[in-house]
Structure prediction request, 281 residues.
Amino acid sequence: MCVELVNNASLPNVPILQTCSLSKIDFPLMGTRQKFNLIITLVLVLVGTGCKPLGVRALHKGEGLLALGRPKAAVVQFKEAVKQLPEEWRAWNYLGLALHRAGDLEGADQAYRQAVEVAGERRRSPNDPAFVLYFNMGRLGLDRDQLVDSEKLLHTYASEKQSFYSLFWLAEAFRRNAHWSEAEVTLQRAFKLKSDSPVALNRMGIIQLKLNKPVESIASFKKALELKEGFAEAQLNLALTYHRYVPASLAGREALALEAFMAYIRLNPDPHPDVQVMVNQ
Prediction:
């Protein structure tokens, strides 16, 4: 049978990449867009340039388009922003982010590398906003299958900036590199910050199977299904776990597997042919 455990797409309602606050350009302590605009105005008065306002407007337009889920349109704005503000690392970071979300992984890599060059050594400080480039380049590395470098970058970021998302993606890097124990421990740390992510629970179930913990994986898949009704990937993984991974001595194993497979077929009326074979068995 060639039906395999099913991973899932990126976390729903989770930013794939980390943005940066436009309100903090060159003044990390300023926290509002109004202050940002005031600062830019003062800078323009001091340096006497006439082109930066176009770049600032393009940044804000691009930010809004990203929030609306329109990365390709945002790319147009951020390309204008880097043209007008070539020495502003945030403009390059946003361009990389938009290109990544639009599926242009090579273009995103080039933009992030330019952001790194512009930011310079400041990016190495966890107290500097440019530190977020470690995360963004690490996430891009996962999608480009540059798994070793991605793990290093995400580990650097998560070591200093621990959040559910930074730990989740570090765990994903560990998983992709087959570092199963590290992936499990890191996801457990993520769950302490946010315990109700069905996507993360599904990933945890897969990791636990790799660690030969089928009972724990069943609990993870069931919890994912409790949190997200109709989560087909977790439902199939639960069925496969009963069918393939739990000891044959488990009471009611075959009935549990059949029940789980039938629930999956109800969610997916046109399943893989091997699913139906397993049901018939």
Notes: The chain has 14 helices and no strands.
